[in-house]
Amino acid sequence: MNLAPVLTLLGVSVLLPCIPALSCQSGVIEAVRNASELPLEWKTGQKTCEVGEGCQDLVMLLENGPQISLVIIKDCVKVEDQEPRVTWLRTGPGLSIVSYTSVCRHSDFCNDVSSTEVLGDLPSPTVPGTLRCPLCLSKDGCEDNRQQVCPAGSSHCYNGVLRLRGDQVTTNLRVQGCMTQPDCNLLNGTKAVGTLDMRETCGPQLGPQALDCNSVALDTIRNVSDLHLSWTTGWKTCKAGQGCQETLMLIQNGQEFHMVLTKGCTSDANREPGITRHRTGPGISIVTYVHVCRHKDFCNDLSTTRNLWTPPPDTVLGNVSCPHCLSTRGCEQAAQQVCPADSSHCYDGVLRLRGGGLVSDLKVQGCMSQPGCNLLNGTQTIGAIDVHEDCSFPLVAGALKCQHGTLEITKDVSQLPLQWTASQTTCDVGEGCQDTLMMIENGKQVYLALTKGCTTNKDQKAKVTEHRTGLGLSVTSYTRVCRLGDLCNDLSTTAPLWASAPTTAPGTLRCPLCFSKYECENPPQQVCPAGSMHCYHGVLRLRGGEITSNLRVQGCMSQPGCNLLNGTQKIGAMDVREDCSPPISEMNVGKSTCYKGTMLRLGVGFAKEAVQWSVSTTEVCEPEETCQETLLLVDIGPRTLLIGNKGCTGPEAEDDVGVSIYSSRPGMLVASYSRICSSNLCNDASNSNVLLSRLPRPTVPPPGDLLCPACVEFFGTCSGSTNFVTCPQGTSHCYKGDIVLQGGGVSSTVSLQGCMSSPAKTLLGGSRNIGVFSVKELSEGTKDGLEEEKPLEGGAPASSLTWLLWLVLFLALCLEGFVLSAEPISL
Hints:
Blueprint: H1 4-9, E1 12-14, E2 23-34, E3 45-48, E4 54-64, E5 67-77, E6 82-91, E7 96-104, E8 128-134, E9 136-138, E10 147-151, E11 156-166, E12 169-179, E13 192-193, E14 196-202, E15 212-223, E16 234-237, E17 243-253, E18 256-266, E19 271-280, E20 285-293, E21 317-327, E22 335-340, E23 345-355, E24 358-368, E25 381-382, E26 385-390, E27 401-412, E28 423-426, E29 432-442, E30 445-455, E31 460-468, E32 474-482, E33 506-512, E34 514-516, E35 525-529, E36 534-544, E37 547-557, E38 570-571, E39 574-579, E40 593-595, E41 597-603, E42 618-620, E43 626-635, E44 640-649, E45 656-663, E46 669-677, H2 689-692, E47 703-709, E48 711-713, E49 724-728, E50 733-743, E51 746-756, E52 769-770, E53 773-779, E54 796-797, E55 807-809
Antiparallel strand pairs: 1-55, 2-3, 2-5, 4-5, 4-7, 6-7, 8-10, 9-12, 11-12, 11-14, 13-14, 15-16, 15-18, 17-18, 17-20, 19-20, 21-22, 21-24, 23-24, 23-26, 25-26, 27-28, 27-30, 29-30, 29-32, 31-32, 33-35, 34-37, 36-37, 36-39, 38-39, 40-42, 41-44, 43-44, 43-46, 45-46, 47-49, 47-54, 48-51, 50-51, ...
């Protein structure tokens, strides 16, 4: 009995190790020839593929009058079988392009095409017309200004560059010739032929103004015996004017070394290749390589450590012993090592590396020849990487526990002082505990904003600041950052801030009294104390430490102006901003006014650190429409994509706020925040902490044995990505797919590759809407996706297994609409 159909119906996938690996013809040929030489024949080499791979044949021929350009690719591929197919991308008259593609698995060397005859007959020559155009087909340039008489029917002279990108193909083919239409559309919209990506550019921004660069972000710790290392990378197209950069750093500590490598686009000025030896030992040694160039595509082509690192000479051991650690996780059980002679100091610190697609906190313990926290000799920037050195806390102590929570409340002054209790949280290694308390007194009322939690800020002694002492409104704050021990952010009462205000005689001025996170409609009047000369009317916007509030304030002041905080813009963990703009015009009565704008951030660390999300543009909605804001986060580990949108939404929407987690760690994280509200300018979240603060604090699992390509692209495609990462334990397969977003003025496709822990094939679990966005997921293994039940391209176990049998049972996990809330501080 064949169990495969039964297992398939049950949702169980079986990978059988007995399938033999194919052998395929392998090779790449690029040539420009005379059309009179057709048909052309070729021979290529051979290679043995990985289990499950097929054999590819790809032939593409571009005809340009008397010349042809030929591209041939034969190789092993992971994509599904494809019957032989001949496709005419353009048929002339004038320029014409034809391709042949095939993927087979029925026998060894089945990709056996060896002649252009497989393409069929090329277009027959036509009678000459009257148009004359330059003739060029070259990878070098079009310098000789050759002219050709175009065939009848041609009406346009084409001038462009075809960028061909694939395995071992990185060609910029300059094309000038005859066309039947005045467009930059030689490819008729085609973006790929088989595994060959194709794009065309026309006009003044050709050549070096829009470079393609090698692109990778790599962070690894190895044994010195592994040196020297070599690597291959992916690629990306830069913005016009940008150059290619590469930054490599090697830190040797005993028999281990840490290597970080970043390549990509940059706006920095050109910089000749340079090697800097920041520290040469004895003990810890550091060497870096930095290069920025614009002279050609892929000029950032360093591919080995060979020219950077030379083994240090053998040294005599000394009398000093130090802990030894080189880790991106922790140094809780660091072993002791005997230091080389001339070492006199034990180094203990963290190197925080940020930039070029890297976010790494490297814990270092080892031998040094001098005291001090100066491993890099004062260097703060190495190429694309910002470096910060911190020796302010003991690494062996591990992570702190801190009091955690937020509280916002308005009370009567007679109820002071207030007391509270808080929950607890475990911070990341190196983080400290913070206390931030702000109190605003307004007549007989007092507003309190309190936040406790973890922070990366430096230690700060307890500090009380009187921002405004009143007559009338007064503002006082308490801030502290500590690493003295667990739960050191132990403020539990308002007593350090508040003392009974002296009684003042009433004056003659009367002002509205309001303390509210909502609108101040018909506020009561209060008699101001003597000396008050001004009625204050403004909004305090508080952002940070898991607090996002707009506090409407009306009260008495001793001076005019929008200056309740005396210019203060930051209080501890909170950013504060003051706005005294006049109320919305009467012309918009009955219509909501909402903030409007779209935010797109593609970078590193956005799943941990909040980024700004405020906009200044507003729009007046249609009657009965309300305000919305939507924030989508996609984190693949090395890179994070944030897409935010604010604006009006339909009248059928009801007030709501929530966070949804579609795919969780380990592996890729996909989560969203959405809010619908009906008051003016209520969609006012100013940073991504409205989402991040509601996500579970991630743990850092050890690396597993699965390698996956990691890529997230908003404007491009992840096809051909070679930026592989080691997936954490708990992940089971590689994801590859697209998420199509539409709504709120956004229409784009997000291309994704990364590690995945859920046995399901999709990231979104069938969700069709994320806030204002309508979404459609196209992923491998789904009905509408790229493939069905095929191994994912680029996924490979890190170790070679002779026999492999996996049974994966699919679980239906419905996470749509799952809302998390922060634990509050209780009074």
